[in-house]
Write a structure and sequence with these properties.
It contains 5 helices and 29 strands. It is of the alpha+beta class and 442 residues long. The chain folds into 2 domains: 88 residues; 236 residues, Galactose-binding domain-like (Jelly Rolls), CATH 2.60.120. It has a 7-stranded antiparallel beta sheet with strand order 2-8-5-6-7-4-3, covered by helices on one side. Strands 11-12-20-15-18-24-23 form a 7-stranded antiparallel beta sheet, with no helix packed on it. Helix 3 packs across helix 4. 39% of the residues are buried.
Length: 442
């Protein structure tokens, strides 16, 4: 997937808004303790000694060996050699290596103000993704978290970590890889759910097996076992498979349940893409905490498989996403931001749980993490990100310092137009289809 680093985004901003000068590495001749030299870029007889200092230019060296050398303010320019002195402490790093210095006018700090603006802009550029939702949807059953904090190892698997390997992630952002450490039936156990005694429960999981086999079974936490529940459903398929634990009554003594996602052989290597557990009498489905506004969860889908591979095993990539109707099949429970469980839907009846539910979420690219290091990257489309970033930088940094600057006002108008055009050219499209297929018979 195409991505852009922090360096690429920042330098493109500088060039497109003409906020300073970039000195390419090939044109960066040398650095001394008190200056930098670029004959090609800064040797100009028309420039005066204070050409850069009068513009309050910040010399930014993001590639310097020590962070203490990143920022200096420009002093005098020797226009016959292209040597620009600075006014701060001596540089400790005077080795050019692969550095690309940036000269930012108007006292703007690229490491502070521009960095903050880039991360703010990422809050307003969105992407769509399918997120599994169930009664464990707020406990990382959707595998959205980058860590496995909500999971407990069963045995001592040699690998127990989230993965973004594309072929193992048919839905959402990542899967959970577990490799057994020479012992069969190792893996992971989900976070615990409360359960009414003698009530019915159902489960789904998606597994892609690299080595050995995979096993999915509900687990009676109260009685610390599985003997009173249905047998495990297994697969050895490389292709992601949807495994189903049918409706089953838990014992009268059961108060809590979870799910075991295990490898059946001593060397099993399994990727788990999602887990769903539904309690038949509980019609409220909590949403993940990051879906904290209505526009972030515009559509709810039921994933109905078309192809059965074995008993209770279906091709996970054959799911037809059938959109449920708001206010008919479910209603949103939103705007309760201070509640312990603030975001949820209420389904109309347990038939909604016949197949796994997904929310087609709209999330900001900031959800994938902020940018900090020069190598940090985002796959936000640049034709969307750059107009938003330009307007953010102009509105928040430059225009407050000089509100009547005609150049900046013109560039702001241009950025706003680019933002509208970019969104028009990239309309939001739902995955919904006409629900003519009713799914495989249960």
């Amino acid at each position: 997937m195409p991505s852009s680093t922090l360096t690429t985004i920042r330098q493109r901003l500088l060039r497109e808004l003409d906020l300073g000068i970039i000195i390419p590495n090939a044109k960066f001749d040398s650095a001394a303790s008190t200056s930098i030299t670029s004959a090609d870029v800064m040797r100009n007889s028309r420039w005066t000694t204070n050409h850069f200092s009068q513009r309050n230019t910040v010399i930014y060296r993001p590639g310097s060996a020590t962070a203490a050398d990143n920022i200096r303010y420009a002093g005098d320019l020797t226009n016959s050699t292209g040597t620009l002195v600075h006014t701060g402490a001596n540089y400790s790093d005077t080795t050019v290596t692969s550095e690309i210095p940036e000269l930012w006018y108007d006292g703007v700090r690229a490491d502070l103000e521009i960095l903050d603006a880039i991360n703010r802009a990422l809050e307003f550029v969105h992407f769509s993704t399918f997120i599994p939702i169930s009664h464990g949807g707020d406990l990382d059953y959707d595998m959205s978290a980058s860590t496995d904090t909500n999971w407990t190892n069963v045995g001592s698997p040699s690998t127990s970590a989230k993965s973004t390997t594309a072929r193992r992630v048919p839905y959402g952002l990542r899967s959970y890889q577990l490799i057994n450490n020479g012992v069969a039936n190792e893996g992971t156990r989900s976070a615990t759910l409360g359960m009414g005694s003698s009530r019915s429960v159902k489960g789904f999981a998606i597994a892609s097996v690299n080595v050995g086999g995979a096993s999915f079974q509900l687990y009676d936490v109260t009685n610390a076992g599985t003997t009173s529940l249905l047998d495990a459903v297994t697969t050895s398929q490389e292709e992601p498979m949807l495994l189903i634990q049918e409706w089953q009554n838990v014992p009268s003594t059961t108060r809590e349940i979870a799910a075991n996602l295990l490898g059946t052989t001593t060397t099993s290597d399994v990727f788990w893409n999602g887990l769903w557990i539904y309690k038949q009498d509980n019609l409220r489905v909590n949403l993940p905490s990051f879906l904290n506004e209505g526009f972030k969860a515009p559509s709810i889908f039921q994933g109905r498989p078309k192809f059965s591979v074995a008993n209770h095993v279906y091709d996970a990539q054959s799911l037809e996403m059938v959109e449920l109707k708001e206010n008919q099949d479910y209603v949103y429970l939103y705007d309760h931001h201070n509640d312990a469980n603030p975001y949820a839907i209420m389904v109309n009846g347990p038939e909604a749980y016949d197949w796994p539910l997904f929310v087609e979420a709209r999330l900001p690219y900031s959800h994938m993490g902020v940018l900090s290091a020069e190598s940090d990257a985002t796959n936000a489309p640049l034709h969307l990100l750059m107009p938003k970033l330009k307007s953010t930088v102009l509105n928040d940094i430059y225009l407050p310092r000089n509100p009547q600057n005609p150049v900046w006002l013109a560039k702001l108008a241009e950025a706003n137009l680019q933002w509208v055009e970019a969104n028009t050219a990239r309309p939001i499209k739902s995955a919904a289809k006409k629900p003519w297929f009713s799914g495989v018979r249960i």
